[in-house]
Amino acid sequence: MRRARAQEAESLTQIARAAKAHWGYPREWLALWREQLSVDANYVRTHPVLVATCADQLAGFAAIEPQADQCELAHFWIAPTFMRRGIGRTLFNAVLELEELQTCRTLRILSDPHALEFYLAMGCVQTGSAPSDIAGRALPVLEHKL
After folding, report:
1. For the chain, which domains are there?
2. Alpha-carbon distance 20 to 16, whole Å?
3. Which of 2, 12, 60, 76 is the most exposed place for a label (fewest CB within 10 A)?
4. How far apart, in whole angstroms, are the C-alpha atoms of residue 53 and residue 87?
């Protein structure tokens, strides 16, 4: 685990898009989410972004957006070739150790439905749901007390 570098932004975007596509979503939905699944160099410079590496390859990344006493987990993606190896668990625990979280009481997560079980296993509690930008679809909202 280490801080992301601005020049890795395109690789992080590719990881996010591949991870989302891994769940079999229709192309139309993936196109709709294209901007949300993008990371640019400025974002990496201005936000706490961690990368997980494995054998000198980027295996995943996470980003938080601190906001007063609550922080938002804005990105949390594992490259499909590295899924189910414990990298997500290690990355999530590293996020909880970020010094930027020290002023936050909770970490809020707007989760993909496919990731719900992972976050629950990590000690998060589902506090509700939020409407998706896809009609008729809801996204789990979770919190992890810090």
Report:
1. 2-145 (3.40.630.30)
2. 6
3. 2
4. 9
CB 69 within 8 A of CB 104: yes
Give the pLDDT of residue 33.
93
User: pTM value?
Assistant: 0.93
Taking residues 5-17, report their average pLDDT. 97
What is the gyration radius of the CA atoms in the chain, in angstroms? 14
Burial 71-102 (b: 16+ CB within 10 A, else e): bbbbbbbbbeebeeeebbeebbeebeebeebe
| pLDDT tens figures, 56-110 | 899 999 999 988 788 999 999 999 999 999 999 999 999 999 888 888 899 999 9
What pLDDT is stored for residue 67 in this prediction?
84
